[in-house]
Amino acid sequence: SARAPSVQLIRAASAAFGHPLVWEDESPTEETPLQRTTSRRADMEQQVNQRRREELGSAFSQDTFMRGLYAVAIGFLILVLVAFITYMTLFVRAILAAIYHGHKPCDQPLKYYSFAILIWGAIGRQLNQQVMKCLQPQMMRNPRNMFLVMMLLSVPLALIISWGALMVISSKTCSRTNPDLYYPTKHYVIFQAA
After folding, report:
1. 140 neighbors 132 (Cβ within 8 angstroms)
2. Please, what is the Cα angle at 116 between 78 and 172, to 5 degrees?
3. For residues 18 and 42, is the Cβ–Cβ distance under 8 A?
4. Whose CA, among 50, 89, 155, 187, lies 20 to 30 Å from 98?
5. Tens digits of residue pLDDT in 174-185
6. 3-state secondary structure 157-186
7. pTM of full prediction above 0.70
């Protein structure tokens, strides 16, 4: 027939893409069983791919997502707990070093640093509560105002930590003359600054 070369070209192209074409008006030929087999194969591949998608979908179900979320939350809580224990350990060591070794010579007043942090912790908390009470409730509803107040209230603590870092950096002889005060205070300042 006149369309035979174009039909063969279309069949070859469609078979290459996995969807062989069969003309409805064609009579069965030797190629028809091959096309049916190819069509069955394509159907089976499609079923296998559908099963894979279903299995993949069940693997990422909401239950699996929640388990992953719980694992991340527990990991975060463990990290916070470890950081808190580390902070408290370093703080207690710095306080004890100031108490027991503060009388030894040191070129910087490191013995006062831990006590300054301790005192500001008590005073700062009270100050924060009083400031929040004094500010008008309408002013505190605005998140920008709330953020500004919190930033201003954190300035004294930042200044104390900066003072501690400056003392540790500026110290020339304390690591030799009073290492029992210098190193616990240094470690505490570094942890706070980080």
Report:
1. yes
2. 95
3. yes
4. 155
5. 999 999 999 999
6. HHHHHHHHHHHHHHCCCHHHHCHHHHHHHH
7. no
Q: Kindly state the tokens that stand for 90.
A: 């370093």
CA distance 114 to 164: 9
Residue 39 to residue 44: CA distance in whole angstroms: 9
Under 8 Å between Cβ of 161 and 155: no
Most distant CA pair in the chain, distance: 112
**For residue range 72-116, what is the model confidence (pLDDT) as tens digits?**
999 999 999 999 999 999 999 999 999 999 999 999 999 999 999
**How far from chain centre, in Å, is Cα 44?**
43
Burial 20-29 (b: 16+ CB within 10 A, else e): beeeeeeeee
Q: Which amino acid type is present at position 67? A: R
* CA dihedral for 44, 47, 49, 51, sign (positive or negative): negative
Give helix 31-59 / helix 4-16 axis angle, nearest 10°.
30
pLDDT, tens only, 135-177: 767 666 777 877 888 888 889 999 999 999 999 999 999 999 9
